[in-house]
Every structure is written in C-alpha cells, then in structure tokens.
Design goal:
Distance between the termini: 51 Å
CATH architecture of the largest domain: 2-Layer Sandwich
Number of strands: 23
Number of domains: 4
Structural class: alpha+beta
CATH topology of the largest domain: Heat Shock Protein 90
Radius of gyration: 27 Å
C-alpha cells in the first residue's frame, strides 16, 4: 500500500473553499443530528481522515481510545498533518485545516487518490463542535502541538522537540452545550464500525479501547489479511454455508478498485452490502446494480451450458440472491452520490467496472469449483419454485381493501380516516388486550389488529410458507404496501405501525418475532421510520384519588420519593390488566404516550443479531446472552 511518488504533502496541497460560520448554528447539516448518532459521527470524521492516510499508502495502524469523561483520542502513524505556513492564510496549515470549512487535502488527487471524506469538512466540523481539541503532529523528525477551544485557536502551534515517530494524534471533547441529549459514547457502536473498517481495509491494524472505567478497561484489536473475504465468513458464522469457499474477486479498471466477496447459506434472506471508499451505501447504487445483473446473467449462462436447466428454464434476479451474503466494496477517485447523503452511489462507471470484474471472476469461480457451482444453481432453482408458489399466495396481499376478506374484516378494527398521513395501526397480541385497545382507542385515526398466538418465525421460513401464515397475511393486507419486489411505500395505509405487546417475556418474544418479520420482508417500513414500539407503564401508583404511572423502576423510585402518604402500587404484567381508559391514557393517547421509533442504523449488524437470536445456532445465542447479560435490567419485562 505504498505510494511514495505522491509523498509530498505540505501547504500547497491544502485548498481553501470557504469559512466556518454556519457549523455551530446548524450542526445537523454537517453531522446529521446532535443526538447520539451525531455524537458518534464526530469520531468517524477523525477516524476516516486516518483511514484516508492508509488508503494513500502512508499509515498501517489506527488507535481509537475513549478516555475518562468521554474524551476521544485518535492516533495514526501516517504522514502527519502539514505544519508549514499556508500560502493563502499565512497561518500554519494544521490550523487552517481545523478552523476553515472545506480546507483539506481531499480535493488534491496528488495527496489522496481516493477518500471517504470528500468535502474537507470533517476536521473543522469536529473542532467547531468540541469544547476543546488538541492536535499533536509527528512530522519530519519534529513533534508539534496545537490547541483549540470551542473551535477557536487557544494555543499557537508549538514545537515540542524531536521525535522518531510519524503521524497525527487528535484528542477532543464533544461540546455539552451542543450535544445536550448525551455526551456518552456507546462502545459497541464504535467497536462495530472499527471492526467493519478493518474488514474493508485488509492488513490495516485497528485497536479500540474504552478507558472510562480504570477498573474495567475494554480493549479490542482488529486486522484482517483476508479483508472482505473474512467479512463474508464473519457474517455467515451464525448461518450454515452451502459451499465451503468464499468466492472472491478483485481488480482495477478506469482507476476504480473493486473487491467482491460472496458466499451462499441455507437461509432465505439476501444480504448484499455495497461500500464506496469505506462508506456504506444502504440504498445501494450503480455498483450494486452491476453486481446483481452480472450475477443473474452468469448463473443463467452456467445453468444452461452445464445442462442443469430444463428446457426454457431460467432464473430471475431474486432467485439468484436467496441465501446470498456479499460485500461489494469499491475505491473510487471521484464518486458521485444521489442526494445529500452518501446512501446511494450514482457513478455510471462503477456499474460497468463492477460488472466487468465480477463477470470474469464469477465465471472462473464456477468453472474451477463445479461442485459448489451445482449447489448454488440448485439453491437458485429451489428459490424459483418457491417464488412461483409465493406468487399465488401473494395474490391475497394485493386486494385494494383489506376488508375484502370476511375472515380478515373480523380481525381488523379499522379507523374511519382514510388519510394515511394521519392514520395509525396498533398490532396487539391476544384478544384480551385487543378488546381493551379497541374500546380505548380513538377510532377516528387509530386501527387495531389483534394477533392470535405467536407469529411465525420467518428467520427459519421461506417466503411461500410465510405467506400461508394467517397472522403475517393479515399484517401485509392491513399495511397495503405489498412485499418483496412488489413493495410500494406509496400504498402504505398507516403513517405509524405500532407494536403493542405485554411487558413480560412472552410479550418481548412476540415483539422480536414481529420485528424479525418486518426486518426480513418489509425493511423499507423501518428505514422510512414507520415502525414504533408502544411503551406501556410497568406500575400504577395510587395515593387516595391521585394516580400516577411509572414506565421504569427508576421512575417508580422517583414517584415514591416524592409521594406523601401510603401508596398503593400495582405492577402491570399484561395490557389486558388495564381497562380501556387506562390503556388510552398511558399508552395510546398521542398527547401522553411514549413511542419508541425502530430504526436500523447498521443493517449489517442488525442482520447478524436477528440471525443469531432467531436462527438455529444455539451456541452463538448462548454466547450473545452471556456477553450481554450485564446490560439486562428488569428481566421479567
């Protein structure tokens, strides 16, 4: 990964586009939000800069540390940020980089051939949103330090002495005046992304440490010589692979570097994860399109030439992707994305290059591994048969109104409003809770769908069988969107889909089954922010005629500490224990209720966890429970 001919990296490489005025006023424009997601984004901006040094060939080790009081330190052994005077500002270049928006080396292809951070805003934005920041530079045998406070220079660039090291150390504290919700980093969130970066950059050493509690320091090291090939093995570890070797193809065309790894398992979900310059693209884009169309074409060609197909038989795209786990990672010198976020790649050359490298690599893999090829084609043919069977079952989900079916009409208590932006539907377990919910709701805009018994675990079921399950069919009919390739968010009948289950172990299990179904077959509903979890109270506290509800043990303790007199405490085990008025007042009234929005920030990790919790691998499940037991509170809720 060496590229010494471009090793010149000084003030002439730093280009300034504009100033830093708006960041503090509108931080959401730069980091998404000032909640937990935005807080963690600060770390990614600094880490991405270090990874870019690695991509340029000048860094092989990146260290991330969470220090006491949620101070973060990121260390790399790259070239070190330039310290000489910048020709336009007359100030040290490192100062310019951290105090001027759109100032950086990313615009200069001599410094960085490819880069995850393309806008040059990362370093300066993190500085602007930090209470303080210290940057230590080891460069040219000298050690320097510069300090900032609330984005402004606090201490001039200072020469500390000589050094044998090379690289940059950035230490910062997120500004509590900006991140009012929380300054607490989630170690698991950081660890997951660091591990992902290690998979995507083979041979690059990462370490992450949580040093906030000196009695319980957590440390992880990651380095994968196999890169994305090992990533696919990792994602398939809780599944049963149907062929032993992970297929791996790499190449470079038109200055675009492509790495593809893929392996089929005996499951039914398709998981293709596209990345551009280490940034995940959840909405896919041209590189994913190139992968999918080439996969379908090559498997059909092989099936025909190997005489595996019957006459006129061919595979549809979805048939070839059942049970597939694949990573499509490209490094592009000038990627074009659709929209403000980097969620979808729009560069047309990526489709062409990925298709070309994939075509050559997959053809070779199938020819060299005929046994694996036969297993893959047979898996796709089984998926084809299931798809045709599911087509018949899916007819029931296409009705213009879910009330067309008498059996269904008796279950769904629909709302009167036909305004989908106002309407909401509660998915409720059991007739008892369903009865209370029907009586307690506002029937103008709230629909109730009671489910009888536990929903089918779709993690272990193919779509044709899932569509024969009455509870699943009822939900699909009610939502109106259709599923799979026919999904259309424009047909959604309810703005909010609210899962309301009992506050006990059975309720938690049913909630997980419902979320598994939504994640596997109606994931866009989660991605568009339509799925919520109701939060019924755990306790009713009554003193005389005064009634208060507690939604957690902590809240109960607070109420009791402020209560004068002898309280009567009722512990709710199920929704059916509440009368309709109580259910409305505590859990369904938009003015009073608390709803938990279900989102999937990391679909890759979510897929892994759903597979582990709902799949067949009991050992992985036990290990997960053991590792996470310390985080469990209120086990019976």
């Amino acid at each position: 990964m060496d590229n010494r001919e471009n090793s010149k990296y000084d003030s002439s490489n730093i280009q300034i586009l504009e100033g830093l005025e708006a960041v503090k006023k509108r931080p959401g424009m730069y980091i998404g939000s000032t909640g937990p997601r935005g807080l963690h984004h600060l770390v990614w901006e600094i880490v991405d800069n270090a990874v870019d040094e690695a991509l340029a060939g000048f860094c092989d080790t990146i260290v991330v540390e969470i220090l006491p009081d949620n101070v973060v330190r990121v260390t790399d052994n790259g070239r070190g940020i330039p310290v000489d005077t910048h020709p336009k500002t007359g100030r040290p270049s490192v100062e310019t980089v951290y105090t001027t928006l759109h100032a950086g080396g990313k615009f200069d292809h001599n410094s960085y051939k490819v880069s995850g951070g393309l806008h040059g805003v990362g370093a300066s934005v993190v500085n602007a949103l930090s209470a303080y920041m210290t940057v230590e530079i080891h460069k040219g045998g000298k050690q320097y330090v510069i300090e900032f406070e609330h984005g402004f220079l606090k201490k001039e660039l200072t020469l500390l002495g000589e050094t044998e090291k090379s690289g940059t150390i950035v230490t910062f504290l997120a500004d509590p005046l900006i991140f009012e919700e929380s300054q607490e980093y989630e170690f698991e969130t950081l660890r997951t992304r660091i591990q992902q970066l290690a998979f995507l950059n083979k041979g690059l050493n990462f370490s992450i440490s949580d040093k906030r509690d000196e009695l319980k320091i957590v440390h992880k090291d990651y380095c994968y010589q196999g890169g994305v090939r090992e990533y696919v093995s990792f994602l398939n570890q809780d599944k049963k692979a149907i062929h032993q070797d992970v297929a791996y193809f790499e190449g470079e065309q038109e200055n675009i570097i492509v790495e593809i790894a893929m392996q089929y398992n005996d499951g039914y979900a398709s998981n293709i994860y596209p990345f551009t310059n280490n940034i995940t693209n959840p909405e896919g884009g041209t590189h994913e399109e190139g992968f999918k169309t080439t996969l379908t074409r090559i498997l059909n060609n092989y099936g025909k030439s190997a005489n595996i197909f019957k006459k006129d038989e061919s595979l549809a795209g979805e048939d070839t992707r059942e049970g597939l786990v694949a990573i499509v990672s490209i490094k592009h010198p000038d990627p074009q994305f659709e929209g403000q976020t980097k969620s979808k790649l729009g560069s047309s050359d990526a489709r062409r290059v990925v298709g070309s490298i994939m075509s050559e690599g997959l053809e070779r893999f199938l020819m060299e591994n005929p046994q694996s090829a036969k297993i893959i084609i047979e898996k796709a043919l089984m998926a084809q048969r299931a798809r045709l069977a599911a087509k018949k079952a899916r007819e029931a989900t296409r009705r213009k109104s879910p009330l067309d079916s008498l059996g269904f009409a008796s279950k769904l208590a629909d709302c009167r409003s036909r305004d989908s932006q106002r309407a909401e539907i509660y998915i409720v377990e059991g007739d008892s809770a369903g009865g209370s919910a029907k009586q307690g709701r506002d029937s103008e805009f709230q629909a109730i769908l009671p489910l009888r018994g536990k929903v089918l675990n779709v993690e272990k079921t193919r779509i044709d069988r899932a569509l024969q399950n009455k509870e699943i069919l009822s939900m699909i009919q009610a939502f109106g969107t259709g599923i799979g390739e026919e999904f259309n968010i424009g047909n959604l009948r309810y703005k909010k889909i609210i899962i309301m289950t009992d506050a006990d172990v059975d309720g938690a299990h049913i909630r997980t089954l419902l979320l598994t179904f939504l994640f596997r077959y109606l994931k866009p509903l989660i991605e568009y922010g339509n799925v919520y979890i109701a939060q019924p109270p755990l306790y009713k506290v009554q003193v005389g005629k005064s009634v208060q509800y507690a939604y957690s043990d902590k809240e109960l303790d607070k109420i009791l500490s402020e209560t004068n007199g002898k309280p009567s405490i009722q512990r709710y085990k199920g929704l059916g224990e509440m009368n309709p008025e109580q259910l409305w007042e505590t859990t369904m009234d938009p003015e009073q209720r608390t709803l938990l929005l279900v989102n999937v920030d990391d679909a890759i990790e979510a897929d892994r966890v759903f597979t582990m919790l709902m799949g067949d691998d009991t050992e992985s499940r036990k290990e997960f429970i053991h590792e996470n037991a310390e985080y469990v509170k209120n086990l019976d809720v």
